[in-house]
Automatic annotation (TrEMBL):
<protein>
    <submittedName>
        <fullName>NfeD family protein</fullName>
    </submittedName>
</protein>
<dbReference type="Pfam" id="PF01957">
    <property type="entry name" value="NfeD"/>
</dbReference>
<dbReference type="GO" id="GO:0005886">
    <property type="term" value="C:plasma membrane"/>
</dbReference>
<feature type="transmembrane region" description="Helical">
    <location>
        <begin position="12"/>
        <end position="39"/>
    </location>
</feature>
<keyword id="KW-0472">Membrane</keyword>
<dbReference type="InterPro" id="IPR052165">
    <property type="entry name" value="Membrane_assoc_protease"/>
</dbReference>
<dbReference type="InterPro" id="IPR012340">
    <property type="entry name" value="NA-bd_OB-fold"/>
</dbReference>
<keyword id="KW-1133">Transmembrane helix</keyword>
<feature type="domain" description="NfeD-like C-terminal">
    <location>
        <begin position="88"/>
        <end position="147"/>
    </location>
</feature>
<feature type="transmembrane region" description="Helical">
    <location>
        <begin position="51"/>
        <end position="69"/>
    </location>
</feature>
<dbReference type="InterPro" id="IPR002810">
    <property type="entry name" value="NfeD-like_C"/>
</dbReference>
<keyword id="KW-0812">Transmembrane</keyword>
């Protein structure tokens, strides 16, 4: 029993290693949080603190990790990048208008290597020929565009 009290840090490290390996099987991110708590217990034991304090430190760190760190990690793992497919991939692209475009006289623009019918996003606007526009929406086979501000000298 003397060896156990003198080498409590090694027992805590063993518990942390066991929990870390068990996490590889469960992939729940619970056991790894408990393993971090066990590492806190190991550090406390290496500092020579009594067993009750080691247990308290391990418990507080484990609960803190489970309450504060795990939810953020799980949220990041479960939310992937926003996937846009089909015509939605064209939103945000820029194109040049070869002809004037208005709501009553739609024009054509080339975006993403394809020819699209285009109308102004703002229905009261007329976009002049040769204007650089950005695609704001795609509805059906029509791209709704808005002119980009230009820097003129």
């Amino acid at each position: 029993m003397d060896w156990l009290s003198e080498n409590a840090w090694a027992v805590w490290l063993g518990v942390a290693a066991f929990l870390g390996i068990a996490e590889l099987v469960s992939l729940d991110l619970v056991l790894v949080m408990l393993a971090v708590g066990a590492l806190g217990g190991a550090v406390t034991a290496a500092a020579g603190a009594p067993f009750v304090l080691q247990l308290l430190v391990a418990g507080v760190i484990s609960i803190g990790m489970l309450a504060l760190v795990r939810p953020n990690i799980v949220r990041r793992l479960h939310t992937g990048p926003e996937l846009r497919v089909g015509p939605e991939t064209l939103i945000g692209l820029q194109a040049l208008t070869p002809t004037a475009i208005s709501v009553h006289v739609p024009g054509r623009i080339k975006i993403g290597g394809e020819d699209w019918q285009a109308k102004p996003y703002d229905e009261s606007m007329t976009i002049e020929a040769g204007t650089l526009v950005e695609v704001l929406a795609i509805r059906g086979a029509t791209a709704y565009v808005h002119p980009l501000p230009s820097i003129e000298s």
